[in-house]
Amino acid sequence: MNPRRIAAVARKEWKETVRDRLFLLMAFLLPALWMVVFGYGLVLDVEHVPFAVLDRDQSSLSRDYLYRFIESRYFDYRGSVSDEREIDQLLGDTAIRMAIVVPERFEERLLAGRSVTVQTLLDGTFPLHADTTKGYVIAVNNSFTQELLTDFLARTRGLGSDEARRLAEPVSLETRYLYNQEVRSTWSMVPALIMFALMVASPLLTALGVVREKETGSIYNIYSSTASKAEYLVGKLAPYVTISTINVAALWMIAVWLFRVPFKGNIAVFIAASMLFVLCSTGIGLVISLLVRTQMAALIITIIIAMVPTILFSGLLVPVPSLSPGAQVQAHLFPMMYYTDVVRGSFLKGLGLKAMWTDLLALAGFAVVLQLVAYGLFTKRPKA
Amino acid sequence: MNDRDDIEAGTLRVWALRLFVMTRKELLQLKRDVPLLLFLIYSFSLSVYISGAGISMQLNNASLLVHDGDHSASSRELIHRFRPPYFRFDGEVEDQKVGVQRLDQGTAMLLLDIPPRFHESIVGREPVSVQLQVDTTNAPQGLSAAAYAARIVGEFSFDLASFRLGGASGGLMDMPRVESAHRVWYNQNQDETWFQSISHILRMITLFAFLLPAAALVREKEHGTVEQLLVSPVTPFQIMLSKVLAMTLVILAATALAMASVLKPVFGVPIKGSAPLFFLMTALYSFTTAGLGLFAATVARNQAQVGMMALLGISPMLLLSGIATPFEAMPPWVQTLMALSPLRYFVDVTYGILLKGVGFDVLWDSMLAMALLGGTMFGLGMWRFRRQLE
After folding, report:
1. Separation in Å, CA of B149 to nearest CA in chain A
2. What does the pLDDT average to over A296-316?
3. Fewer beta carbons under 10 A from the terminal one: N or C of chain B?
4. pLDDT band at B167; cut points 50, 70, 90
């Protein structure tokens, strides 16, 4: 390996990149823009569930009960209906996601100390939301029951309200939320978005850089030049690794200064992992670029490979342990999952090398293997 | 009069023939790109299966550790209520610290701490509380786990109260209680494979519908073959339309492949509405998205630029249109912005037709929005393309 030849290839690549203004702008702007847009915009919490009510009782207690839903930030009241068929229509049109049906004699039965069944109709197209919404409804029902019971005991047994409450709720649960005390999805999202922004842009930059030369034929200059395979590949990667490294720094600053996500971990570990990850993501682009012939194929395959596993199998939206075994295998086959672990661990959990060395090792493994595969695939003596 | 009709019919035939030839050229070109074609087939078959079968956003198998400071009948009874599929009991820890360490490493999600004298307090009618620590690095899952835990402990507590009160009055006593009954529509068993596999197809359609025509157009610009087309008798309109037509055909075929090979036979997704309507809508959506792609292609000068613009346009579409996250919970500015995303309408249309079985009467507004968006984008792209050629 001759450093002068590497520098020459890198300089040529760099010039080509810098002269394409739009491309250069996008390379730096896109990751930062995504971070801001998705950091503020991508909300995972199920809130503002639009709902309608059908109150068959029309009593003061039923209004009191429904008011708890109307007041809650988890629900978004869209009016009341007088007929179940209207509910059908609203659900079909996705105007509402849920409807609550309060039965007749709601107040009468509850005051008499009997149980009442309230029916909720849920739109099940998005099962996670249906399930979460169910949980909210049950929570409202339980707390309402608790209060009714306390009242009821105080009324029928002549107990003080404190004593009645103790009787009504013998065991309670105290929940502590670790790492993200206010349970803000921004905090869990933003660190993972660093991974997303890096993963989606850099493979594309690299892949097109190589295939462009193949398609226009300028790669024959390389074939006939004195630059060796390794020198060409290293020189080719250098500018994209540089761009991605600058992006890592920018993204870190956005996360810490703009979103105020605490960085509790070890900065050296974070930097090391980021560098390895940049090598992985550019490596993926390099491998794809050597497998296809046209820029169009490189473009589409890179975008899809970069996008789909990154959204689905990296832990960005769905935690890896709750994937099925088959999908978990796929998650482990890509470097994204390990980097997500490191980023979240460094930001939110404050973990150091001791807890995350396996992730780092995996990233290093991917980086090495991908570069070796690229080296193996690249040939200066093409068949055609 | 008759002659003029004949001439008009003749021109129309020639016009259609030219469009047909151009469309065929696009299809041939795609057919010869073997890696791309293989990837297309993979994306609409195996890949749909993997995402459909593999992804579950609902809480399942949340790993639960218990620090049981009491080891009594009551504590065992409570632990026993944390059951699969939501929770997976991952054993007891002797020391709180060990539990927190496991949470740190991410090998466990919840730590339930039952205090000593738990049983005694219950028997002695003293209120007692148990502690739960939840890993909320993934906020929605953490919240969901906490909600389930609260439900379980709440029921435990209620059962205890009713047993105790009933015991005191010598027999089961009536107590006021609001019970919850749920009816989940359109997907009674909350089978997540339906949702995930359909979402995945939407994702793939979006990506291919945007990228295929855009890349095809820029390639011609980059190679200079556009110049050749210009001196030929085809109009710029035909050049653009033929690309959209060819790619829409490809996407329709791929969607049919996904439906016939994975959705129906493997996951048993019911197609409640009209299948022809669904394919018609898919065609409309492909056209709309292709319009976006072509517009991007007229702005870009080479394929690298188109790639970056595709990323710029597609990522927000994929992440914010409601197939990954609850649309209603998005901040208002995102909801406003997403009025420009055709996927936002196509999501409603697809789930509406496939799962809810609704038809044109309910979905017309979404269709209209898609058609308008598509027409506008196509028109804008057309205008730019013409200007560039002149």
Report:
1. 8
2. 84
3. N
4. low
What are the chain B neighbours of A22 within 8 Å (beta carbons)?
300-301, 305, 308
Using the predicted structure, report yes or no on whether residue A367 has a pLDDT greater than 50.
Answer: yes
Contacts of A120 in chain B (CB under 8 A): 180-183
The CATH fold assigned to A49-168 is abc type-2 transporter like fold (3.40.1710)
Q: According to the 3-state scheme, what is the secondary structure of A42-63? A: CCCCCCCEEEEEEECCCCHHHH
Q: Do B195 and A116 touch (CB under 8 A)?
A: no
Q: What are phi and psi of A233, to 5 degrees?
A: -65, -45
Residue-wise DSSP of B58-122 = S--SEEEEEEESS-SHHHHHHHHTS-TTTEEEEEE-SSHHHHHHHHHHTS-SEEEEEPTTHHHHH
Q: Chain A, 90-149: which have a CB under 8 Å from a chain B CB?
A: 91-94, 97, 109-132, 134-139, 141-142, 144-145, 148-149
A positions 293-312 inside 8 Å of B (CB): 293-297, 299-304, 307-308, 311-312
Q: How confident is the model at residue B2 (pLDDT cuts 50, 70, 90)?
A: low
Q: Computed from CA positions of residues A308, B211, B207, B309, in that sequence, does the dihedral angle turn out positive or negative?
A: positive
> For domain B62-168, is the CATH number 3.40.718.10?
no
Residue B170 has a pLDDT of: 43
Q: What is the pLDDT of residues B174-195, one digit of tens each?
A: 678 888 888 888 877 778 888 8
Collapsing DSSP to helix, strand or coil, B56 comes out as coil
Q: What is the pLDDT of residue B272?
A: 86
Instruction: Flag whether pLDDT at B1 surpasses 60.
Output: no
Query: pLDDT tens across B279-304, in order?
Result: 999 999 999 999 889 888 888 888 88
What is the pLDDT of chain A when averaged over all its residues?
86
Contact between chains at B129 and A185 (C-beta distance less than 8 A): no
- Closest listed residue to residue A113, CA positions, set A64, A75, A152, A60: A152
Let me know the angle formed at the C-alpha of B249 by B248 and B251, rounded to the nearest 5 degrees. Answer: 65
**Residues B331, A41: contact at Cβ < 8 Å?**
yes
Axis-axis angle for helices B192-223, B2-32 (nearest 10): 100
Short-list A229, A310, A308, A321, CA closest to A277:
A310
pLDDT of residue A379: 80
| Option in A34, A131, A318 nearest B315 (CB) | A34
From chain A, pick out residues whose CB is under 8 angstroms from the CB of B304: 20, 23, 204-205, 208-209, 212, 295
| β-pair partners for B185 | A123
Asked whether the beta carbons of residue A296 and residue B303 sit closer than 8 angstroms, the reply is yes
Contacts of B216 in chain A (CB under 8 A): 296
| Position B172 confidence tier, pLDDT thresholds 50, 70, 90 | very low
Rama region for A350: left / alpha / beta (φ>0; ψ in -120 to 50; rest): left
Domain ranges of chain A: 3-42+181-377, 49-168
Listed residue (B74, B73, B148, B72) closest to B109, CA to CA: B148
Residue-wise pLDDT for B145-163, tens only, equals: 888 888 888 888 888 887 7
Residue B181's closest chain A neighbor by CA? A119
Tokens of A142: 């339980």
Report CB contact under 8 Å: A120, B182. yes
Range picked from A119-123, A175-179, B84-88 for highest mean pLDDT: A119-123
- What residue segments make up the domains of chain B, in order of their start? 26-54+190-389, 62-168
